[in-house]
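Batch job 17 of 40 flagged for manual review because the log was empty.
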Amino acid sequence: MAMSESRRKKLAILAKSIARGDSASARRLLDSYGHTGVNRRRERPAEPINLLEACGGREEGVSRPRGRARFHLVHRGLAELGDDCLGIAREYASLMRGARQRFDELAASAVLCHAASATLEGPLFVDIESCGLIGTSIFLVGTMSYAETELVIDQYLARNYAEEEAILQAFADRYAQAGILVTFNGKAFDMNLIRERAAFHGVALPRHEPPHLDLLVEARRLWKGRLPNCRLQTLERHLCGRNRMGDIPGWAIPDAYHRFVQTGDARVLRDILHHNLLDLLTMAQLLCMALGGSDGAAG
Protein backbone atom coordinates (compact mmCIF):
# COMPACT_ATOMS: atom_id res chain seq x y z
CA MET A 1 0.00 0.00 0.00
CA ALA A 2 1.48 3.38 -1.04
CA MET A 3 2.48 5.79 1.70
CA SER A 4 0.64 9.13 1.64
CA GLU A 5 2.62 12.33 1.10
CA SER A 6 1.47 13.64 4.49
CA ARG A 7 2.70 10.55 6.31
CA ARG A 8 6.00 10.58 4.36
CA LYS A 9 6.64 14.17 5.49
CA LYS A 10 5.85 13.35 9.12
CA LEU A 11 8.19 10.35 9.10
CA ALA A 12 10.92 12.54 7.62
CA ILE A 13 10.38 15.08 10.41
CA LEU A 14 10.50 12.25 12.96
CA ALA A 15 13.82 11.00 11.55
CA LYS A 16 15.32 14.50 11.69
CA SER A 17 14.10 15.00 15.27
CA ILE A 18 15.73 11.75 16.35
CA ALA A 19 18.95 12.57 14.48
CA ARG A 20 19.38 15.93 16.21
CA GLY A 21 18.40 14.58 19.62
CA ASP A 22 15.13 16.49 19.84
CA SER A 23 13.33 13.84 21.94
CA ALA A 24 10.37 16.08 22.80
CA SER A 25 9.40 16.54 19.14
CA ALA A 26 9.96 12.86 18.41
CA ARG A 27 7.77 11.84 21.35
CA ARG A 28 4.92 14.07 20.19
CA LEU A 29 5.01 12.49 16.74
CA LEU A 30 5.17 8.97 18.17
CA ASP A 31 2.24 9.70 20.48
CA SER A 32 0.12 10.82 17.54
CA TYR A 33 0.95 7.77 15.41
CA GLY A 34 2.00 5.06 17.84
CA HIS A 35 4.84 2.62 17.32
CA THR A 36 2.82 0.64 14.74
CA GLY A 37 2.29 3.66 12.51
CA VAL A 38 -1.48 3.70 13.14
CA ASN A 39 -2.78 7.20 13.66
CA ARG A 40 -4.39 7.00 17.09
CA ARG A 41 -6.49 10.10 16.53
CA ARG A 42 -8.38 8.25 13.80
CA GLU A 43 -9.37 5.35 16.09
CA ARG A 44 -12.99 5.39 17.17
CA PRO A 45 -13.51 5.14 20.92
CA ALA A 46 -15.63 2.24 22.07
CA GLU A 47 -19.31 3.03 22.45
CA PRO A 48 -20.32 3.61 26.10
CA ILE A 49 -22.26 0.83 27.82
CA ASN A 50 -25.06 1.89 30.13
CA LEU A 51 -25.54 0.51 33.62
CA LEU A 52 -28.37 -1.90 32.84
CA GLU A 53 -26.48 -3.41 29.89
CA ALA A 54 -23.28 -3.81 31.87
CA CYS A 55 -24.55 -4.92 35.28
CA GLY A 56 -28.27 -5.60 35.19
CA GLY A 57 -30.19 -4.80 38.35
CA ARG A 58 -32.84 -2.19 38.99
CA GLU A 59 -33.51 1.15 40.63
CA GLU A 60 -34.61 0.98 44.27
CA GLY A 61 -35.59 3.55 46.86
CA VAL A 62 -35.37 4.02 50.63
CA SER A 63 -37.14 6.42 52.96
CA ARG A 64 -35.17 9.44 54.15
CA PRO A 65 -36.31 12.59 56.00
CA ARG A 66 -36.28 14.59 52.75
CA GLY A 67 -38.26 11.93 50.90
CA ARG A 68 -37.48 8.88 48.80
CA ALA A 69 -33.76 8.39 48.05
CA ARG A 70 -32.82 6.34 44.99
CA PHE A 71 -29.95 3.97 44.24
CA HIS A 72 -29.19 0.97 42.01
CA LEU A 73 -29.50 -2.58 43.32
CA VAL A 74 -27.89 -5.65 41.75
CA HIS A 75 -29.44 -8.79 43.29
CA ARG A 76 -28.11 -12.23 42.38
CA GLY A 77 -28.31 -15.75 43.69
CA LEU A 78 -25.19 -17.89 43.44
CA ALA A 79 -27.17 -20.52 41.55
CA GLU A 80 -27.24 -18.24 38.50
CA LEU A 81 -23.48 -17.65 38.57
CA GLY A 82 -22.39 -21.17 37.65
CA ASP A 83 -21.58 -24.53 39.18
CA ASP A 84 -18.44 -23.33 41.01
CA CYS A 85 -20.39 -20.64 42.86
CA LEU A 86 -23.23 -23.05 43.57
CA GLY A 87 -20.69 -25.45 45.06
CA ILE A 88 -19.54 -22.73 47.47
CA ALA A 89 -23.15 -22.12 48.53
CA ARG A 90 -23.72 -25.83 49.19
CA GLU A 91 -20.50 -26.13 51.18
CA TYR A 92 -21.45 -23.10 53.24
CA ALA A 93 -24.97 -24.39 53.96
CA SER A 94 -23.73 -27.85 54.88
CA LEU A 95 -21.02 -26.61 57.21
CA MET A 96 -23.16 -23.97 58.90
CA ARG A 97 -25.88 -26.53 59.63
CA GLY A 98 -23.34 -28.73 61.41
CA ALA A 99 -21.24 -26.02 63.01
CA ARG A 100 -23.29 -25.86 66.20
CA GLN A 101 -22.57 -29.55 66.81
CA ARG A 102 -18.85 -28.67 67.08
CA PHE A 103 -19.41 -25.53 69.17
CA ASP A 104 -17.68 -26.92 72.28
CA GLU A 105 -14.85 -28.43 70.23
CA LEU A 106 -13.79 -25.20 68.52
CA ALA A 107 -10.48 -23.85 69.77
CA ALA A 108 -11.70 -20.50 68.54
CA SER A 109 -12.25 -16.90 69.43
CA ALA A 110 -15.53 -15.95 71.06
CA VAL A 111 -16.82 -14.28 67.91
CA LEU A 112 -16.05 -17.35 65.79
CA CYS A 113 -18.06 -19.36 68.29
CA HIS A 114 -20.88 -16.86 67.73
CA ALA A 115 -20.68 -17.70 64.02
CA ALA A 116 -20.77 -21.42 64.80
CA SER A 117 -23.93 -20.99 66.87
CA ALA A 118 -25.68 -18.68 64.39
CA THR A 119 -28.58 -19.74 62.27
CA LEU A 120 -27.92 -20.40 58.61
CA GLU A 121 -29.49 -17.05 57.76
CA GLY A 122 -27.69 -15.15 60.55
CA PRO A 123 -24.29 -14.18 59.07
CA LEU A 124 -24.22 -11.06 56.90
CA PHE A 125 -21.05 -10.76 54.79
CA VAL A 126 -20.14 -7.15 53.95
CA ASP A 127 -17.52 -5.66 51.64
CA ILE A 128 -17.45 -2.02 50.54
CA GLU A 129 -15.82 -0.09 47.70
CA SER A 130 -14.96 3.54 48.32
CA CYS A 131 -13.45 6.54 46.57
CA GLY A 132 -10.21 6.17 48.50
CA LEU A 133 -9.11 6.00 52.13
CA ILE A 134 -10.87 6.89 55.38
CA GLY A 135 -12.84 10.11 54.98
CA THR A 136 -13.86 9.53 51.37
CA SER A 137 -17.31 8.53 50.17
CA ILE A 138 -18.61 4.98 49.71
CA PHE A 139 -20.15 4.11 46.36
CA LEU A 140 -20.78 0.35 46.72
CA VAL A 141 -21.86 -1.82 49.65
CA GLY A 142 -21.82 -5.51 48.78
CA THR A 143 -23.66 -7.92 51.08
CA MET A 144 -24.14 -11.67 51.00
CA SER A 145 -26.41 -13.82 53.16
CA TYR A 146 -28.32 -17.08 53.06
CA ALA A 147 -31.99 -16.73 52.17
CA GLU A 148 -34.41 -19.64 51.84
CA THR A 149 -32.34 -22.11 49.80
CA GLU A 150 -29.25 -20.25 48.60
CA LEU A 151 -26.64 -17.58 49.20
CA VAL A 152 -27.73 -14.29 47.68
CA ILE A 153 -25.69 -11.19 46.92
CA ASP A 154 -27.10 -7.67 47.10
CA GLN A 155 -24.87 -4.87 45.83
CA TYR A 156 -26.07 -1.39 46.75
CA LEU A 157 -24.61 0.98 44.16
CA ALA A 158 -24.50 4.78 44.12
CA ARG A 159 -24.78 5.87 40.49
CA ASN A 160 -23.32 9.23 41.47
CA TYR A 161 -21.84 10.82 44.58
CA ALA A 162 -25.23 12.11 45.78
CA GLU A 163 -26.62 8.57 46.10
CA GLU A 164 -24.20 7.58 48.89
CA GLU A 165 -26.86 8.49 51.47
CA ALA A 166 -29.35 6.09 49.86
CA ILE A 167 -27.03 3.08 49.80
CA LEU A 168 -26.02 3.67 53.41
CA GLN A 169 -29.68 3.75 54.45
CA ALA A 170 -30.35 0.56 52.48
CA PHE A 171 -27.41 -1.09 54.22
CA ALA A 172 -28.55 0.13 57.65
CA ASP A 173 -32.00 -1.39 57.07
CA ARG A 174 -30.41 -4.75 56.15
CA TYR A 175 -27.81 -4.56 58.93
CA ALA A 176 -30.54 -4.27 61.56
CA GLN A 177 -31.65 -7.82 60.67
CA ALA A 178 -28.20 -9.46 60.83
CA GLY A 179 -27.36 -12.05 63.44
CA ILE A 180 -23.61 -11.64 63.01
CA LEU A 181 -21.53 -9.36 60.79
CA VAL A 182 -18.71 -10.96 58.77
CA THR A 183 -16.03 -8.79 57.10
CA PHE A 184 -12.41 -8.93 56.03
CA ASN A 185 -10.48 -6.09 57.68
CA GLY A 186 -13.85 -4.58 58.53
CA LYS A 187 -12.89 -3.61 62.07
CA ALA A 188 -10.05 -1.41 60.85
CA PHE A 189 -11.62 -0.09 57.64
CA ASP A 190 -15.07 -1.03 56.30
CA MET A 191 -17.19 -0.47 59.40
CA ASN A 192 -15.24 2.58 60.53
CA LEU A 193 -15.84 4.22 57.17
CA ILE A 194 -19.51 3.15 57.14
CA ARG A 195 -20.03 4.71 60.58
CA GLU A 196 -18.23 7.89 59.57
CA ARG A 197 -20.19 8.34 56.32
CA ALA A 198 -23.50 7.33 57.98
CA ALA A 199 -22.97 10.01 60.63
CA PHE A 200 -22.20 12.56 57.89
CA HIS A 201 -25.55 11.84 56.20
CA GLY A 202 -27.53 11.37 59.41
CA VAL A 203 -28.18 7.69 58.70
CA ALA A 204 -28.87 5.79 61.92
CA LEU A 205 -27.16 2.42 62.30
CA PRO A 206 -28.62 -0.13 64.73
CA ARG A 207 -28.11 0.92 68.35
CA HIS A 208 -27.18 -2.63 69.32
CA GLU A 209 -24.91 -3.94 66.61
CA PRO A 210 -24.48 -7.71 66.19
CA PRO A 211 -21.19 -9.50 66.95
CA HIS A 212 -18.52 -8.67 64.35
CA LEU A 213 -16.34 -11.47 62.95
CA ASP A 214 -13.36 -9.96 61.15
CA LEU A 215 -11.86 -12.75 59.05
CA LEU A 216 -8.51 -10.96 58.74
CA VAL A 217 -8.09 -11.30 62.52
CA GLU A 218 -9.01 -14.99 62.33
CA ALA A 219 -6.75 -15.56 59.30
CA ARG A 220 -3.77 -14.14 61.17
CA ARG A 221 -4.55 -16.35 64.15
CA LEU A 222 -4.89 -19.49 62.02
CA TRP A 223 -2.47 -19.05 59.12
CA LYS A 224 0.09 -16.33 59.88
CA GLY A 225 3.58 -17.65 59.20
CA ARG A 226 2.24 -20.57 57.17
CA LEU A 227 1.40 -18.50 54.08
CA PRO A 228 3.29 -15.61 52.41
CA ASN A 229 0.84 -13.11 53.97
CA CYS A 230 -2.79 -12.86 55.03
CA ARG A 231 -4.12 -10.63 52.26
CA LEU A 232 -7.50 -11.76 50.96
CA GLN A 233 -6.31 -12.77 47.49
CA THR A 234 -3.30 -14.61 48.93
CA LEU A 235 -5.64 -16.66 51.11
CA GLU A 236 -7.91 -17.16 48.10
CA ARG A 237 -5.03 -18.46 46.01
CA HIS A 238 -3.46 -20.77 48.61
CA LEU A 239 -6.52 -21.98 50.50
CA CYS A 240 -9.37 -21.76 47.97
CA GLY A 241 -7.27 -22.74 44.96
CA ARG A 242 -8.46 -19.84 42.80
CA ASN A 243 -6.45 -17.34 40.76
CA ARG A 244 -8.27 -14.25 39.53
CA MET A 245 -7.88 -13.55 35.83
CA GLY A 246 -8.43 -10.00 34.58
CA ASP A 247 -9.57 -8.72 37.98
CA ILE A 248 -9.41 -4.96 38.52
CA PRO A 249 -6.83 -4.22 41.25
CA GLY A 250 -8.09 -2.48 44.37
CA TRP A 251 -5.91 0.60 43.87
CA ALA A 252 -7.52 1.23 40.46
CA ILE A 253 -11.12 1.12 41.68
CA PRO A 254 -11.56 4.76 42.84
CA ASP A 255 -10.36 6.19 39.50
CA ALA A 256 -12.53 3.70 37.61
CA TYR A 257 -15.61 4.83 39.54
CA HIS A 258 -14.83 8.52 38.96
CA ARG A 259 -14.57 7.72 35.25
CA PHE A 260 -18.01 6.08 35.30
CA VAL A 261 -19.56 9.12 36.99
CA GLN A 262 -17.96 11.44 34.43
CA THR A 263 -18.73 9.42 31.29
CA GLY A 264 -21.66 7.15 32.13
CA ASP A 265 -19.74 4.22 30.61
CA ALA A 266 -20.47 1.29 32.93
CA ARG A 267 -18.00 -1.25 31.52
CA VAL A 268 -15.53 -0.35 34.31
CA LEU A 269 -18.33 -0.63 36.85
CA ARG A 270 -19.00 -4.20 35.73
CA ASP A 271 -15.41 -5.06 36.69
CA ILE A 272 -15.79 -3.42 40.10
CA LEU A 273 -18.99 -5.32 40.89
CA HIS A 274 -17.31 -8.58 39.88
CA HIS A 275 -14.31 -7.80 42.12
CA ASN A 276 -16.67 -7.12 45.03
CA LEU A 277 -18.58 -10.36 44.39
CA LEU A 278 -15.37 -12.43 44.36
CA ASP A 279 -14.31 -10.89 47.68
CA LEU A 280 -17.63 -11.92 49.25
CA LEU A 281 -17.35 -15.47 47.90
CA THR A 282 -13.83 -15.86 49.27
CA MET A 283 -14.99 -14.62 52.67
CA ALA A 284 -17.66 -17.34 52.78
CA GLN A 285 -15.05 -19.99 51.96
CA LEU A 286 -12.68 -18.67 54.61
CA LEU A 287 -15.44 -18.81 57.22
CA CYS A 288 -16.08 -22.44 56.24
CA MET A 289 -12.38 -23.23 56.66
CA ALA A 290 -12.17 -21.46 60.02
CA LEU A 291 -15.22 -23.31 61.32
CA GLY A 292 -14.09 -26.59 59.77
CA GLY A 293 -10.68 -26.43 61.44
CA SER A 294 -8.56 -26.04 58.29
CA ASP A 295 -4.86 -26.45 59.06
CA GLY A 296 -3.95 -23.84 56.48
CA ALA A 297 -1.63 -26.02 54.45
CA ALA A 298 -0.64 -24.09 51.34
CA GLY A 299 -1.72 -25.62 48.04
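Reviewer: the log was empty due to a logging misconfiguration, but the result itself is present. The chain has two domains: 5-42, 51-292. Unflagging and moving on to job 18.
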